[in-house]
Amino acid sequence: MREPLFVKQNAAKWSSFEQSPTDDPDELAERFIQITDDLAYAKTFYPKSKTTAYLNGLAAGLHQSIYKNKSEKSNRFLTFWKYELPILFKTYQKPLLYSFIFFIIFCFIGALSAKYDENFVRLILGDGYVDMTNANIAKGDPFGVYKQGGETLMFLAIAANNIYVSLVTFVSGVIFSVGSVYFLFRNGLMLGSFQYYFFSKGLGLKSILVVWIHGTLEISSIMIAGAAGIILGNSLLFPKTYTRMVSLKRGAKDGMKVAIGIVPILIVAAFFEGFVTRHTEMPVWLSVTILTSSLLFIIWYVIIYPNKIYKTLNHNATKN
């Protein structure tokens, strides 16, 4: 799009933002998102123009309005998960899709490898885990591993480990995205071989009803962390019109927001694993309710809600 047309389409909106300031946190957040999107477009196609400088100033003013009162920090905290993170999910829907596809492929590789190589499960999961699980199966308690230790200590240890794994998966993306794909590969192989192991023992459905109580949120978060790493790596590989350093900073910032944004989801997953999964004899309806609710939440928050916000912003921009 030529710059005069870009300005013509958005001038009324920009003018209204300047002439009609607002103190409403939600409205400020929406305006800030719109202006930063316009600024990103202008920086890409008209990096040295007066339009870009003007939008930069307008974005700075909105940024100051959002942060000017320390008492509004709680609102800013809410705004991140209500607007910023979903918008990032929409902006980077392709890396999210790539991460999902990679992970599913690696899961199938893990399952097929376990099927055709009887030693593969031990190689991936470890002799200790397999021997312990075989003993638990013999005792009639195949998922007894989730009952070991106290709930609180187990919850804290799992939460810390999950957050660590997700952040490492993200940071590894700086190795041209390959690092994050490698961690998706490792976790995919592990999940695939793990599930095949229980299916081969006739415990496939039971493993889904038990393990996926926490696994739905946990595995989804790993895939999102992989996407954050791909965002980081792709910013280095494909800088587009930016300098490579500017693109890397932008990718690192957005990828970090995505990686940090899933921390609450990981904490909830750890809570389920520490306090809920251990009740392996819970009613089927309760297990199905928990894992289905978790899956629907991920689909809504990562796909449906971001698209809804995007359509709303586009509609408002067209009206302006």
TrEMBL record:
Pfam families: SpoIIM. Keywords: Membrane, Transmembrane, Transmembrane helix. The chain crosses the membrane at residues 96-114, 163-184, 196-213, 219-238, 258-276, 282-303. Coiled coil: none annotated. PANTHER family: SLR1478 PROTEIN. This is Stage II sporulation protein M. It comes from Mucilaginibacter ginsenosidivorax. The lineage of its organism: Bacteria, Pseudomonadati, Bacteroidota, Sphingobacteriia, Sphingobacteriales.
